[in-house]
Write a structure and sequence with these properties.
Low-confidence stretches: none
Strand order of the largest sheet: 3-1-2-6
Order of helices and strands: EEEEEEEEEEEEEE
Length: 211
């Protein structure tokens, strides 16, 4: 038969992501800053009373801080204690085995001395009508629209301005109408509506959330 496919010299831009399967991964991040991803299939369902399987081999003084499922095509936003945000796609994280500890975050992102992961958010899109709520060690809070973080810079972006000796401790995704509950290390708690904090830009300090 006559050839049906055409062989041409036409060039076409090929996006590397087009070659990466859109599949779910289990992402783990430890307290000392080791990160890895492994396919969800690496864990199999067990019946009640099963003895479980090893999820990660940790050093004696390490624990898992974050563990979540995200697609290879989703973004992971790493917020540091110094108020900066770094962005990677899930498929850019090193794939490991169940037993492996993972790769130190300082080998993936240009962290400064003393800079550590404060919080991690995974998302596929950056909607204008959803916000990130920041909380610092000294009780400051700030709300910023997610779309302001839809940028990529190798050296990171300022996520929140911090006073001297203050540090970022938590970032959560909030939608209009939700409640925010802040709990202090002394066991005190305060609850308020997210709308009580007006939205601000990235390079701002925020307002007092709790004394």
């Amino acid at each position: 038969d006559k050839r049906r496919t055409q062989i041409t010299g036409a060039e076409k831009d090929l996006n590397v992501e087009d070659l990466i399967a859109d599949e779910d991964m289990v992402v783990t991040i430890t307290h000392t800053g080791y990160v890895k991803r492994i396919p969800v299939e690496s864990y199999r369902a067990q019946k009640r009373g099963g003895k479980g399987v090893s999820g990660v081999n940790l050093k004696e003084d390490d624990v898992i801080d974050e563990m979540f499922i995200a697609s290879t095509h989703e973004y992971v936003l790493f917020f540091s204690t110094k108020g900066k945000v770094y962005r990677l796609k899930v498929h850019e994280l090193p794939e490991g085995t169940r037993q492996a500890r993972g790769t130190a975050i300082v080998n993936l992102l240009p962290f400064e001395d003393g800079e550590k992961i404060a919080s991690v958010i995974s998302c596929r899109e950056f909607p204008e009508d959803e916000y990130l709520m920041f909380a610092t060690e000294h009780g400051m809070v700030k709300k910023t629209s997610m779309d302001l973080y839809d940028r990529t810079r190798r050296d990171g972006l300022i996520a929140i301005s911090l006073k001297d000796n203050d540090r970022l401790i938590s970032v959560k995704r909030v939608a209009p109408g939700e409640k925010v509950l802040m709990v202090s290390s002394a066991g005190k708690a305060i609850m308020w509506d997210e709308g009580e904090v007006r939205a601000m830009g990235r390079d701002t300090m925020g307002v007092r959330g709790m004394n």
